Amino acid sequence: MSTLDQIYGAVLQDITETATLINPIAAIQQELKAVAREPSPGAMFQELLLVFGLLNNATYGLAALQAQLATLTALVSLDNTAILTALGTPQQAGSPVTLAGTFDQEVCDAVWNDIPTSYPRNMGYALVNAAQSAVQANYFGTPPRFGHFTINSIDFPTNDFQIPAYTLPVFDPTDLLVGDTLLSMMIRQNPTATVVYGNPPQTNVTIEYAGGTGIGWITDLDETSFSQMKAFLYPSSFAQNAPVWPGLANVTLLTPVALDVTLTVTEAMNGAIIDITSVPIKQGFFTFGDLISWRNVGALAFVDDNGQAEYPQLLGLASAVYLPKAMVHASGVVVRASPGVTGTITPFTIN
Fold first, then answer.
1. Which pLDDT tens digit goes with each residue over 231-240?
2. CB burial readout 259-285, b (16+ within 10 A) else e
3. How many domains, in total, are found in the chain?
4. What is the pTM for the complete model shown?
5. The dihedral sign for the CA sequence 57, 61, 63, 64
6. CA distance 276 to 280
């Protein structure tokens, strides 16, 4: 039972006892009023006898009332003691607050322990989170959002919440290359930062600047939305056309295969690099500046996913790149090399 319940019960009992005393006195008063209204001596005598009887009644006469009043006085005294005990010693105005606990650690635990949520967090941690949220909401002037980036993390100093220096990330779609991914473009445009994907399986990109600047960023784009943005900004670059060489940084070189008189490479590819290392003297050659192009050393033809080959392309230059002319992707390539010709063919895919 709570302290308030105890106090309420004691006061209610005192009121009930008082009402018990008041009821008989009210009855005697009514009889006395009746006596005052009666004109005849006989009637007045009868009424006075009745009042005398009431005053001497064992249950509610004067003696009984006196006994009940003594009982009530004792009860009120007991209830007063119980109420004061239940209240204890309340905090007085102007006095220092006294916290519960037998030692400082108990007080600290009672105030700062985990808050009861579905994901319990230390109370101090919760207050730090609230302060960080205020900072991220532009309270201290740091933009929580900048272009395609939002603040990913803030590492505050130990003793205050002053916002540290920060560097804004770069996102320049005019610098976008055909073979770019979101990650490759962000790495190229933010060379002084650590640029990686977010937590797997996310393909949003996080950017952290070195030197303890305290600000990290994460893109609101992932690789899927980035591809859609590329197709929207540069539709001609993403039409279903034959591939073009996008630069070595934007291709993945596959396993090289030695040239032979007849050779088939069955592998998805966007093109192939031919390196000719040795040719019989009888073949002859042409020169293109410092480059050598051998005569009659072979040819290759890319094959589609239905097994058909496009028109062959002649081999010649000692090192050259070849791409399909009539398809976006090839499912393989067939090669013919003249006897005695050695070298490699290295398929590649565009990133």
1. 887 776 666 6
2. beeebebeeebbbbbbebeebeeeeeb
3. 3
4. 0.38
5. positive
6. 11
